[in-house]
Amino acid sequence: MASRNPRVLLLYPPNQSLPRTMCKPNGSLAYPSLAGALRRHGTDVGLFDACVGDDSDDLDEAFYNSPTELPSGLLRTGVPDERILAAVAEYDIVGITSIFTEQETMVLRTARLIREHFPGKILLSGGVNARSRLSRFFAAGFTAVCLSESEETITRVVDAARRSATPDLSAISGVATVHDGRIRVNPVRAEEIRWDLDTLPVPAWDLLPNRRYWSIGRPHGGAFDARTDLRYGSLMTSLGCPFHCAYCHIAGETAEHPSGPIGRYRMKSDDRVLLELETLKGLGVRQVFIEDDSLLADKKRCIRLLDKIRGAGVEILDVNGVNVIHLLKRWQPDHEMLQALVAAGFTEIVLPFETGNLRVMRTYASNKLNIDRSDIPALIAACKDYGLRITGNYMLGYPDETRAEIDNTVQLARRHVAAGLDAANFFLVMPLPGTPLYDLACARGHLDPDFDPDTMNWTRANMRRTVVPPEELEEIRDRAWEEINDPAFKRYKRTMVVRTPTARGAPW
Predict the structure, then answer these.
(1) How far apart are the C-alpha atoms of 249 and 431, rounded to whole Å?
(2) How far apart are CA 64 and CA 21, in angstroms?
(3) How far apart are CA 226 and CA 495, in angstroms?
(4) What is the pLDDT of residue 502?
(5) pLDDT score recorded for residue 210
(6) Domain extents in the chain
(7) How far apart are CA 126 and CA 149, in angstroms?
(8) 197-495 has which CATH code?
(9) Exposure pattern of 388-406 as b/e (b: 16+ CB <10 Å)?
């Protein structure tokens, strides 16, 4: 199917979700970034989100009325298979990202569908989940899996397809392929990693079905009044993180890994961030989610940047990127940082406290916060004084965590709520593929390397043979959430009903 000028389609597969939970379209930044690179390369690129369809699809049929039960009991939301095949028919290369393990089944199912009907197409995948599960992805029919940041990798695949109808992709660095029945991994070269992020192309956000996303009104983060006119987009002002927590994929992205050291913290210039904001505004975006892994890591840079974007004319929201230590100065609230966040338009911050135990913090969370020395009640009070809504995230169920240590974390959350924290979220530790914790869990028998990805979700204790059994961990998590949070927050989280064009938006 290759041609002299191959066409590339970037495809979000249909979404799968748990019953009685809200399905949210993917819309990750991977595809706009890759599309921007392909455009700059002179490649004809398209983007199709099979969860919501495009303007030729009826949104009721594509999204609201489409959920069907899968054999796993999960629900599939998106356009029918025939529509996916029609969308990919005229393209030579199809890219399907796999960042999120819980969506792996839909990625592989979509790949098998395309391979069955179009055996000559080049199928690419990438993302931390794909590069960690190579054998499954090749068994589903993928031609190659990109192992690192892929703005340049995908253009090299296009060049190879221009030269040959059956290109050999194994020579491309940063790519895994199958040769003579064996998986061949060609690691990325360190000199190919973009240390200067300003040299990356501006993401092609215009290819996303933005108006469909806005109509559905279900961004990944934030709590919005039903009357809010949502016109949101996402950007990243930096990549990587100075911390290397065992449960985060960044900890595995080192020079020794095929991905190369892409976990290293790198920043865009202020001017580049302002350019991207203007690009989003030009598309009608009013709310911008900053999705950095560590937005505040360079505090001076962050304060300076926030001051510059204060008058950008958009509401700045944060989904990620805040570590508690960056809001402290000598263990007390850092008022300069808090004032900068509020002045830039932040109204809500999630504080990842992770654990109430220094041993656990040092073992699994980069020792990034001394919970004993930090004056967290003063930080909570300062946030409330500045008008910020603040929630806390707490993690339970590390492999060797004792009941006493788990209770320490629960009691810490209780004290934080008593000090003014608006809500406490409790998460069971997930050993996601690509993280050091996953490797540890497999090596110590806490997880089968061939686990069912449909079971890897936030509702479950996914590891076995932990000090506190998985069933008990789930009971502790549920009880803590019920006892510590106020009724209004619990009602909101149970319904998760958001604004939709009509009354169609019932949760599922």
Answers:
(1) 10
(2) 13
(3) 13
(4) 37
(5) 96
(6) 8-187, 197-495
(7) 9
(8) 3.80.30.20
(9) bebbbebbbbbbebeeebb
pLDDT at residue number 312: 81
pTM, two decimals, is: 0.92
Q: What's the DSSP call for residue 296?
A: T
Dihedral angle computed from the Cα positions of residues 354, 357, 362 and 364, in that order, rounded to the nearest 10 degrees: -50
The two three-digit tokens of residue 296, written as one number = 């505040």
Residue pair 251/294 in contact (Cβ under 8 Å)? The answer is: no
Running along the chain, 508 residues long, what does each successive block of 10 average in pLDDT?
A: 79 94 89 97 97 96 95 96 98 97 97 98 97 97 97 96 92 94 93 94 97 91 74 95 95 94 96 96 93 93 91 78 92 96 87 96 96 96 96 96 98 98 96 97 95 91 96 97 90 55 33
Phi-psi region of 237 (alpha: psi -120 to 50; beta: other; left: phi over 0): alpha
Residue carrying the six token digits 């991994």: 185
Nearest 5°: CA angle at 144, between 132 and 35? 95
Query: Would you state the structure tokens that stand for residue 263, as one six-digit string?
Result: 């976990």
b/e burial code for range 447-465 (CB count within 10 A of at least 16 → b): beeebebbebbeeebbbee
Indicate the CATH number for domain 8-187. Answer: 3.40.50.280
Nearest CA to 395 out of 448, 444, 334, 466 is that of 466
In degrees, rounded to 5, the angle at the alpha carbon of residue 492 between the alpha carbons of residues 487 and 496 is 155
- Phi first, then psi, for residue 62 (nearest 5°) are -75, -35
| Residue 271, pLDDT score | 96
Q: Which amino acid is at 495?
A: T
For 377-420, the three-class secondary structure string (H helix, E strand, C coil) is HHHHHHHHHCCCEEEEEEEECCCCCCHHHHHHHHHHHHHHHHCC
Residues 6+ positions from 433 with CB-CB distance below 8 Å = 101, 128, 129, 132, 133
The pLDDT, as a whole number, for residue 226 is: 67
State the DSSP code for 216.
H
pLDDT at position 108 is 98
User: Which residue blocks in 182-298 are alpha helix, DSSP H?
Assistant: 210-216, 270-282
d(CA 271, CA 268) in angstroms, rounded, equals: 8
